[in-house]
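Tutorial handout. Part one gives the primary structure; part two gives the three-dimensional structure as tokens.
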Amino acid sequence: MSMVDVVFPPGASQRDWVADSILAVSVTLVSIVPYIAASAGALHYSGLFALSASFTLPLALRRHAPLAMLALCTVAGVFQLILIDRPTFSLIAVPIVAYSVARWVPGHLARSVIVIGAFASILGPMRWFAAFDTNPSADILYWGACLGAVLTPYAIGRRTREVAEARAAQVSSAEERYDLLLAEREQQTKLAEASTRAMIARELHDIVAHSLSVMIVQAEGGRAAATRKPEVAAEALDTIAETGREALHEMRRIVGVLRSDPSSPEPPNFSPMPTLDDIPDLVHRTSDRARLIVHGLPFPVPQALTLTLYRVTQEALTNFLKHAGPDAHATVTLTYSRGLITVDVQDDGEGIENPTDGGGNGLRGMYERVTSMGGTLKAGPLSGRPGFRVTASIPVRDHAGTPVRRS
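Part two.
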């Protein structure tokens, strides 16, 4: 805290100025009216009036400049001690001064009012009762009473200040917690939006890339067989049309969910997501050079897990169509074991360079899907022979967190 804030504490309003000014004028009137009534306006009391007013009027500064008030009251008290040999009614301002300094002056500087009050508590009675023969017990009583008029309001003022500071600290802490909560919610919202965008990007990538790859392969095969085997070309065209309709349906479903308005009378199309039961059809539609092998007996698994395994298979077959070459073959192996489902897609292609591949987004999307389900993904070329292999293993757990057992 700067010295300016100590001398002129911040926070006092215009309303406080008015209230303190009224207090100062009221205490001044209370301190001089008895003398006016007793003297009937005698001129020799004018100095007393001036000294009393100089001691009480600085109370108008008690919240705006408490140290200045203390200095002015101290100077006025010194003049009263020198010029007047008896206590005056203006001393009723002493408790107000002590309270105001304790309440509004921070730190150890507020104790200056105690030091000044202690000296005044001794010098005042000594000046007032110098002409009287008093015993030490009476002197101690006078000193204690005067000092108590300073210490008691000082203690009350310090306690009030401590309570106000504690309350302000609680409010500040609550505001900080609120700001942190807002920042955390905003961060969570951004993370949720990023996660949603990544999920939608993966879905669209898998749908579009696989569908286009299948359509391109079927179109090339149909063109090659158009003159020799027209029925094969017709079958390829049917596969292209079916794949296109399915891709269009999937894209409409995703875009429909994104564009859905809660107030819209038409609900979005929440059609079923692909499952493990759709993998045989996926392999069949991909190419006649791909085949499916299933080990073990299927058992119920969560929908999110089935979608993940379906998309991994779809992306692996897409990469097979794009990179393995026209003479390569692929084998999809789906294995159901106790508490674990594994999809293995392996081809024997040589691989080709394709600069429009997309920078490996497909493999990255597969990795994100599998790891989000607590599984593992391995992808890479085969060792010692041509080909590429993608293996995804995902544990299957029930709602209690224990592995599912096949019956």
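Part three, for discussion. Strands lie at 290-295, 330-337, 340-347, 376-381, 388-395. The chain has eleven helices and five strands.
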